[in-house]
């Protein structure tokens, strides 16, 4: 197990390193970025930047400094918002995005699992078909379209909920629902498929032959076995939540990471864009690592096998 | 069976043809069998029909409409959708009227607000429907729905089936144009993914050993990089445009395909027919192209089918974060994004491209699901 | 001896896309207290479906018990509700399945799996149940039970897992133990150990066993009586001696002919030609007729009833009818029936009460 963690963590570091290097080169290449020479900044700002990055030094030294700064969590300064460190700008958005993402994840998987469980128990009934249609729609239709429909009908036409900003529970409902559709659909579909397979397996017959009641069959025997593979969809879910927050935050004017990012794009604030991108990369890779480890903890079969792929 | 059986029957039977070993079903080729199974899957069939219709519309749709592709006419901006023959079904919202509900203390006040909203001097082109009379005692407000006939007010005789956008361009034409671009981007991206993925995965698995190890290590690193990050970084280097988006989508998109192909080829490699043709002296390329790839084709098609909606989604996503196609290029993503800006007053600008996009996504997803069941019985539920 | 189970005219079908698969078509037999009844027959003949139907473990849908009675201590199980069946399963009727690798829940400690039945059917505390479980694991010969009770199935070998499955089945001292090919998935030495274990345990707990196997050597070793199944029916049933030394049904001859023996190696084995019929459309007459070199015209027209050979021995073949010509089993089979075949000609050739 220890060897396995080390191996995964090794890959994680290599990947991060490549992304960081890539973004360093980009910063050097892009016109108007704070690290290029021909830029229209004030002398004072230039002095700060030059002191920080040592622009007079050879490029290799600059590169190592850049990486060194990254390791310490220093992502440079914003190019547009004068002198503000990127890290602190991002950190202002993170709690809001995290709040949105975690609620969406929690609500989505909860209802998704409920739906998937019922569908598998009522396999091949109208209810099952209905649940199937719901999950196909939820997986196919992008979250921004749900967001648009919600915003128009619930917000504008019926005037039930506020259509923008973040803070009060009313403001949070629509963004969270829009973002939770995908996790709901995918966990529902996945749990249903897994449950149907588990319910038909030999050990379920063994359990039934012991005289175990139907309730215990499902909740004590089947559910745990069906839930374990659900970990594999956590990767796609994390991705969908990340891309989702970017657009959903923009649509509902939620002041999170996504909004910082889009503002960065609109104002050509490259250091913000790079900072957010690196942050996303780090987050994603961390999630993948956690999923891998979780797999090992939850499933006793993998736990002792040492988890070799 | 109460009566004794016939005595004459107790004689040894003549040799009969043993039919027990005959297979009753006609033997089908792999593709015939798959097609039969696909046809039984109503969802997949529905998806296929929807997709065919949408592709046809993307190709021929703009021709049906009498409006030019990029005709701008600011006097015709924001015309609501109006379709011949559907004008009398107001609930469809295709009667060329803007409908809005106003609440005020009195009906007169509501009317004033409606006139202000529609920028009209009088109610000549406005129909009113009182939903609730005002009541001073209970404090109930007047609720009135006004329907403004913009076509009549501006003396427009044409029909804009999906309405017009803020610049007065015909949305019907633009939606199918955008569909064309979105599909193009997705198909090309899926195709490139397929080429690169099949080549990489095939070579990696077929040669095995060191080659395989090195190639797999590279993939493991690439897979760790989130798609989102790659796409954003690539778009930043390249100027936004169709080519840039395709490159951004494919630069790491092929890894999934490569993994699947590698897995399948590894499995097939050990099987006897490959060993047989190897002993017969077949060359590497021959074995790869004649034996291994054809036996992997099902998986490749399924995977490509899932790639397409993903690419369409990412293209639209890029429009949302400001990294998508730039005007005058248009795609479903840019149309929906533009629609958002006018969502409060003219929801149809967003709704039509959103419906088309949803249909494409649903179509590809259920067709891909159906194909997976049809082409690979082992993967069935 | 007293009958603990009587099965009468059992029919089980599966409703599939292709139509109704008639897996079991009128099976009748009884099981006496303390005896071991072996069921043999080719793959797909309906052995598993028959025995699963006894504890109503047929997945439904698609399966259903179409007709028939399953009388256990006078109660007809076929008519009991699911809730009432839960009280019988594991307590009175237990089942051991073929594949120990898949028949244990991979994410549950084996101790918990054994205890579950104990707690369900007895009013005992967790602590007592755990103590009983340790005894059971000891009984089935699992080494170091205290250490292993909290481990998961993947930490055990196939033979050990089958011992655990047996412990689960024995937990509540069932009156009937159904073993569906309990040793097929195991290697030969482990097979022998598991068989010894089952014989031992049967002596201790005095339960009746229904034993399904393809291995006639195992049958000879464990069975008191043998039922031969073909295409969803019992075609011959009798004591082990009667089936081995005086078989009457050509299908039984075929089975015996295809059994390897140690003492006559030089003889080649005779495989039964052809394959079993499609249970979607079972044939009109005797299902075995097309593969039977002794088939008569009547076999293609009408299904044979059960003919009585002795009080304990019945066979469903027209060859036992008074009008039938006399035929001898093939030589290979005759040489296996070590006793003199002709000493055992059935005294009465009268038709037994016709049930079908
Ligand atoms: N769930 C099911 N759905 C449809 N048909 C089934 C199902 N289970 C069993 N059958 C059919 O019932 C018939 C009898 O199967 P059964 O499992 O009892 O055979 P068996 O004698 O136990 O064979 P084996 O020796 O291989 O275990 C077979 O034709 C099989 O196809
Ligand atoms: Mg069986």
From TrEMBL, chain A:
<feature type="transmembrane region" description="Helical">
    <location>
        <begin position="272"/>
        <end position="295"/>
    </location>
</feature>
<keyword id="KW-1003">Cell membrane</keyword>
<feature type="transmembrane region" description="Helical">
    <location>
        <begin position="12"/>
        <end position="30"/>
    </location>
</feature>
<dbReference type="GO" id="GO:0055085">
    <property type="term" value="P:transmembrane transport"/>
</dbReference>
<feature type="transmembrane region" description="Helical">
    <location>
        <begin position="133"/>
        <end position="153"/>
    </location>
</feature>
<feature type="domain" description="ABC transmembrane type-1">
    <location>
        <begin position="94"/>
        <end position="295"/>
    </location>
</feature>
<feature type="transmembrane region" description="Helical">
    <location>
        <begin position="227"/>
        <end position="252"/>
    </location>
</feature>
<keyword id="KW-0472">Membrane</keyword>
<dbReference type="Pfam" id="PF00528">
    <property type="entry name" value="BPD_transp_1"/>
</dbReference>
<dbReference type="InterPro" id="IPR000515">
    <property type="entry name" value="MetI-like"/>
</dbReference>
<feature type="transmembrane region" description="Helical">
    <location>
        <begin position="100"/>
        <end position="121"/>
    </location>
</feature>
<protein>
    <submittedName>
        <fullName>Oligopeptide transport system permease protein</fullName>
    </submittedName>
</protein>
<dbReference type="GO" id="GO:0005886">
    <property type="term" value="C:plasma membrane"/>
</dbReference>
<keyword id="KW-0812">Transmembrane</keyword>
<dbReference type="Pfam" id="PF19300">
    <property type="entry name" value="BPD_transp_1_N"/>
</dbReference>
UniProtKB/TrEMBL annotation, chain B:
<keyword id="KW-0472">Membrane</keyword>
<protein>
    <submittedName>
        <fullName>Oligopeptide transport system permease protein</fullName>
    </submittedName>
</protein>
<feature type="transmembrane region" description="Helical">
    <location>
        <begin position="345"/>
        <end position="368"/>
    </location>
</feature>
<dbReference type="GO" id="GO:0015031">
    <property type="term" value="P:protein transport"/>
</dbReference>
<keyword id="KW-0571">Peptide transport</keyword>
<dbReference type="GO" id="GO:0005886">
    <property type="term" value="C:plasma membrane"/>
</dbReference>
<keyword id="KW-1003">Cell membrane</keyword>
<feature type="transmembrane region" description="Helical">
    <location>
        <begin position="44"/>
        <end position="64"/>
    </location>
</feature>
<dbReference type="InterPro" id="IPR025966">
    <property type="entry name" value="OppC_N"/>
</dbReference>
<keyword id="KW-1133">Transmembrane helix</keyword>
<keyword id="KW-0813">Transport</keyword>
<keyword id="KW-0812">Transmembrane</keyword>
<feature type="transmembrane region" description="Helical">
    <location>
        <begin position="181"/>
        <end position="206"/>
    </location>
</feature>
<dbReference type="Pfam" id="PF12911">
    <property type="entry name" value="OppC_N"/>
</dbReference>
<feature type="transmembrane region" description="Helical">
    <location>
        <begin position="218"/>
        <end position="236"/>
    </location>
</feature>
TrEMBL record, chain C:
<dbReference type="GO" id="GO:0016887">
    <property type="term" value="F:ATP hydrolysis activity"/>
</dbReference>
<dbReference type="Pfam" id="PF00005">
    <property type="entry name" value="ABC_tran"/>
</dbReference>
<keyword id="KW-1003">Cell membrane</keyword>
<dbReference type="InterPro" id="IPR050388">
    <property type="entry name" value="ABC_Ni/Peptide_Import"/>
</dbReference>
<feature type="domain" description="ABC transporter">
    <location>
        <begin position="5"/>
        <end position="256"/>
    </location>
</feature>
<dbReference type="InterPro" id="IPR013563">
    <property type="entry name" value="Oligopep_ABC_C"/>
</dbReference>
<dbReference type="GO" id="GO:0005524">
    <property type="term" value="F:ATP binding"/>
</dbReference>
<comment type="similarity">
    <text>Belongs to the ABC transporter superfamily.</text>
</comment>
<keyword id="KW-0813">Transport</keyword>
<dbReference type="Pfam" id="PF08352">
    <property type="entry name" value="oligo_HPY"/>
</dbReference>
<dbReference type="InterPro" id="IPR003439">
    <property type="entry name" value="ABC_transporter-like_ATP-bd"/>
</dbReference>
<dbReference type="GO" id="GO:0015833">
    <property type="term" value="P:peptide transport"/>
</dbReference>
<protein>
    <submittedName>
        <fullName>Peptide ABC transporter ATP-binding protein</fullName>
    </submittedName>
</protein>
<dbReference type="InterPro" id="IPR017871">
    <property type="entry name" value="ABC_transporter-like_CS"/>
</dbReference>
<dbReference type="InterPro" id="IPR027417">
    <property type="entry name" value="P-loop_NTPase"/>
</dbReference>
């Amino acid at each position: 197990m220890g060897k396995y963690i080390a191996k995964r963590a090794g890959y994680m570091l290599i990947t991060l390193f490549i992304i960081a290097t890539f973004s360093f080169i980009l910063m050097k290449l892009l016109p108007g970025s704070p690290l290029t020479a021909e830029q229209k900044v004030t002398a004072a700002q230039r002095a700060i930047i030059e002191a920080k990055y040592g622009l007079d030094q050879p490029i290799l030294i600059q590169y190592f400094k850049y990486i060194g700064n990254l390791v310490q969590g220093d992502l440079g300064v914003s190019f547009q918002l004068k002198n503000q460190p990127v890290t602190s700008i991002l950190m202002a958005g993170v709690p809001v995005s995290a709040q949105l993402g975690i609620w969406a994840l929690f609500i989505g998987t909860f209802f998704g699992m409920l739906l998937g469980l019922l569908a598998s128990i009522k396999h091949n009934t109208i209810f099952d078909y209905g649940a199937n249609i719901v999950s196909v729609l939820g997986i196919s239709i992008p979250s921004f379209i749900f967001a648009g429909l919600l915003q128009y009908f619930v917000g504008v036409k019926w005037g039930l909920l506020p259509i923008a900003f973040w803070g009060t529970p009313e403001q949070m409902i629509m963004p969270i629902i829009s973002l939770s559709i995908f996790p709901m659909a995918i966990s529902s579909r996945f749990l249903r498929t897994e449950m149907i397979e588990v319910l038909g397996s030999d050990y379920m017959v063994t359990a039934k032959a012991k005289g175990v009641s139907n309730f215990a069959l499902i909740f004590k025997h089947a559910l745990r076995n069906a839930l374990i593979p659900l970990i594999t969809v956590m990767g796609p879910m994390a991705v969908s939540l990340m891309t989702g927050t970017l657009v959903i935050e923009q649509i509902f004017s939620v002041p999170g990471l996504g909004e910082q990012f889009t503002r960065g794009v609109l104002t050509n604030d490259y250091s913000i864009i790079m900072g957010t991108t690196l942050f996303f990369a780090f987050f994603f890779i961390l999630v993948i690592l956690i999923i891998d480890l979780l797999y090992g903890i939850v499933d006793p079969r993998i736990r002792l096998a040492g988890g070799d792929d | 069976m109460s009566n004794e059986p016939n005595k004459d029957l107790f004689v040894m039977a003549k040799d009969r043809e043993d039919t027990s070993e005959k297979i009753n079903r006609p033997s089908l080729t792999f593709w015939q069998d798959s097609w039969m199974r696909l046809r039984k899957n109503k969802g997949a069939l529905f998806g296929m029909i929807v997709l065919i219709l949408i592709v046809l519309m993307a190709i021929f749709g703009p021709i049906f409409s009498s409006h030019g592709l990029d005709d701008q006419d600011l006097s015709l901006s924001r015309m609501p959708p109006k379709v011949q023959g559907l004008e009398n079904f107001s609930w469809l919202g295709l009667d060329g009227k803007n409908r809005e509900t106003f609440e005020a203390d009195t009906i007169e006040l509501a009317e004033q607000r409606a006139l202000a909203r529609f920028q009209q001097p009088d109610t000549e082109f406005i129909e009113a429907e009182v939903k609730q009379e005002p009541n001073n005692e209970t404090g109930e407000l007047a609720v009135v729905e006004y329907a403004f006939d913009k076509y009549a007010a501006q003396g427009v005789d044409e029909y804009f089936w999906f309405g017009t956008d803020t610049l007065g361009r015909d949305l019907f034409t633009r939606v199918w144009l955008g569909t064309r671009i979105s599909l193009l981007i997705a198909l090309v991206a899926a195709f490139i993914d397929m080429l690169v993925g099949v080549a990489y995965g095939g070579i990696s698995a077929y040669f095995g050993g060191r080659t395989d190890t090195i190639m797999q290590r590279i993939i493991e690193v690439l897979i760790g990089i989130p798609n989102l990050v790659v796409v954003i970084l690539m778009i930043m280097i390249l100027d936004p445009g169709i080519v840039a988006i395709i490159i951004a989508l494919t630069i790491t998109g092929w890894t999934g395909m490569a993994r699947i192909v590698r897995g399948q080829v590894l499995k097939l490699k050990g099987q006897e027919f490959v060993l047989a043709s190897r002993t017969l002296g077949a060359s590497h390329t021959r074995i790869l192209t004649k034996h291994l790839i054809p036996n992997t084709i099902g998986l490749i098609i399924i995977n490509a089918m899932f790639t397409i909606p993903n690419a369409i989604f990412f293209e639209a996503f890029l429009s949302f974060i400001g990294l998508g196609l730039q005007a005058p290029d248009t795609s479903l993503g840019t149309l929906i994004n533009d629609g958002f800006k006018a969502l409060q007053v003219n929801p149809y600008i967003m709704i039509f491209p959103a419906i088309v996009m949803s249909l494409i996504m649903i179509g590809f997803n259920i067709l891909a699901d159906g194909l997976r069941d049809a082409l690979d019985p082992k993967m069935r539920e | 001896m007293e009958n603990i189970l009587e099965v009468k005219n059992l029919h089980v079908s599966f409703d599939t896309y292709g139509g109704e698969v008639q897996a079991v078509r009128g099976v009748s037999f009884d099981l006496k207290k303390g005896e071991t009844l072996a069921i043999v027959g080719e793959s797909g003949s309906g052995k598993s479906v028959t025995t699963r139907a006894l504890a109503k473990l047929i997945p439904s849908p698609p399966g259903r018990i179409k007709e028939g009675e399953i009388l256990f201590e006078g109660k007809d199980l076929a008519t009991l509700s699911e809730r009432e069946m839960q009280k019988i399963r594991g307590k009175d009727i237990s089942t051991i399945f073929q594949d120990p690798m898949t028949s244990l829940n991979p994410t549950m400690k084996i101790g918990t799996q054994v205890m579950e039945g104990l707690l369900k059917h007895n009013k005992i505390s967790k602590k007592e149940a755990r103590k009983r479980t340790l005894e059971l694991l000891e009984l089935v010969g699992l080494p170091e039970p205290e250490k292993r009770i909290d481990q998961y199935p993947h930490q055990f070998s196939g033979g050990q897992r089958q011992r655990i499955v047996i412990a689960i089945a024995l937990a509540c001292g069932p009156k009937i133990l159904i073993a569906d090919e309990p040793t097929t998935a195991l290697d030969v030495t482990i097979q022998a150990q598991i068989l010894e274990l089952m014989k031992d345990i049967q002596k201790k707990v005095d339960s009746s066993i229904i034993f399904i196997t393809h291995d006639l050597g195992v049958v000879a070793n464990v069975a008191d009586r043998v039922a031969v199944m073909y295409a969803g029916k019992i075609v011959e049933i009798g004591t082990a001696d009667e089936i081995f030394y005086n078989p009457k049904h050509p299908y039984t001859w075929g089975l015996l002919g295809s059994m390897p023996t140690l003492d006559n190696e030089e003889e080649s084995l005779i495989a039964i030609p052809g394959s079993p019929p499609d249970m979607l459309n079972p044939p009109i007459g005797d299902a075995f007729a097309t593969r039977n070199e002794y088939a008569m015209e009547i076999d293609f027209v009408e299904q044979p009833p059960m003919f009585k050979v002795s009080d304990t021995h019945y066979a469903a073949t027209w060859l036992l009818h008074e009008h039938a010509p006399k035929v001898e089993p093939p030589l290979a089979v005759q040489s296996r029936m070590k006793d003199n075949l002709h000493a055992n000609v059935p005294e009465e050739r009268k038709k037994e009460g016709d049930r079908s």
